[in-house]
Design brief:
alpha/beta; Rossmann fold; Dihydrodipicolinate Reductase, domain 2; 2 domains; five-stranded parallel beta sheet
């Protein structure tokens, strides 16, 4: 650390999440003395504007990664698998947005408002959960603490930005084509996404009838809450929305929990905004969550088929709280708790 801040690397700086991280470092007045953007070989040398200055993207190398205090990574699993240990060996602590490290037993999987104590004893790598898991955990943690959770039934409605910029471009181009009575070009997803709903978010691993997105919701939920007994059923769906994941969540609790009490708990929870007046047309929507950091919860009601369960609708900006914001919040917690340079 220099005298006036931290030397921060952003791996995957030219992507949607990486560019959002760069913006949040400014928005949140993160104490960075220098920001170093890293990107692939084809983007090396590209310049980015940041906080009134121009930054040049670097390709990771043994020389370029030296001297960093912190790295915020969103460059894909294969890149993270190779470079995260090298950044750590070079002295940095890395907060990683990819799926590669999340289920490693010795890597904490952290949501800032939910399990910050998991940062204690980290070994240099901290994992960010999947965006769908992330927003759901912020909403479920106060309910879990109050009444426990027996079972979750989740249906997601995931925005195309979760796949990347090419998916946003494809949604736009397909929409224009359909409106102009032309044949849309299908490339990013298995089928047309414009004016359509795909009952597949993520990929189907060989021999599995669940997508990897669905498995992430199941496994990451248990790890973050530290409770392997929670039963989880998940269906992940891709919808023609640019930004903002939505989730319908049925929560079966172990102890009695009324919708009224759930509403009170959520209204008092950090990072949660309750929007729950359906008769007046007030409920969480992706279009309202986009560009914001809170998790929005509404449609809080009793499950008429199960007196032990309540239903929620949960919405959040998948690029911000679902990825970039939490990464920066975790970095802030590392500084606040004097854990940035610690190794167990």
């Amino acid at each position: 650390m220099s005298g006036d801040g931290y030397r921060v690397g952003v791996l995957g700086a030219t992507g949607l999440v990486g560019s959002t991280i760069l913006g949040l470092l400014t928005e949140r007045s993160f104490p960075a003395s220098e920001v170093v953007p890293f990107a692939s070989a084809r983007s090396a040398g590209k310049t980015l504007e940041w906080n009134g200055s121009v930054l040049e993207c670097r390709e990771p190398s043994e020389e370029s990664i030296q001297g960093l205090d912190l790295v915020l990574s969103s460059a894909g699993g294969a890149v993270s698998a190779e470079w995260a240990p090298r950044f750590v060996a070079a002295g940095a602590t890395i907060v990683d947005n990819t799926s590669y490290w999340r289920m490693h037993d010795d890597v904490p999987l952290v949501v800032a408002e939910v399990n910050p104590d998991a940062l204690e004893g980290h070994k240099g790598i901290i994992a960010n959960p999947n965006c769908s898991t992330m927003q759901m955990m912020v909403a479920l943690k106060p309910l879990y603490d109050e009444a426990g959770i027996e079972r979750l039934v989740i249906s997601t409605y995931q925005a195309v930005s979760g796949t990347g910029k090419a998916a946003i471009d494809e949604l736009r181009s397909q929409s224009r084509a359909v409106l102009d009575d032309q044949a849309p070009v299908v490339d990013v997803y298995p089928h047309q996404i414009a004016f359509n709903v795909l009952p597949q978010a993520g990929n189907f691993p060989t021999g599995d009838d669940h997508t990897d997105e669905e498995r992430k919701l199941i496994n990451e939920t248990r790890k973050i809450l530290g409770d392997d007994s929670i039963r989880v059923s998940a269906t992940c769906v891709r919808v023609p929305v640019a930004t903002g994941h939505s989730e319908a969540v049925n929560v079966e609790t172990r102890e009695p929990l009324s919708p009224e009490r759930a509403r009170e708990l959520l209204a008092a929870a950090p990072g949660v905004t309750v929007v729950d007046d359906p008769a007046a047309g007030r409920y969480p929507m992706a279009i309202d969550a986009a560009g914001k950091d809170d998790v929005f919860v509404g449609r809080i009601r009793r499950d008429p088929g199960n007196e032990s369960a309540i239903d929620l609708f949960v919405v959040s900006d998948n690029l911000r709280k679902g990825a970039a914001t939490n990464a920066v919040q975790v970095a802030e917690l590392l500084i606040e708790r004097d854990l940035l340079g610690s190794r167990e």
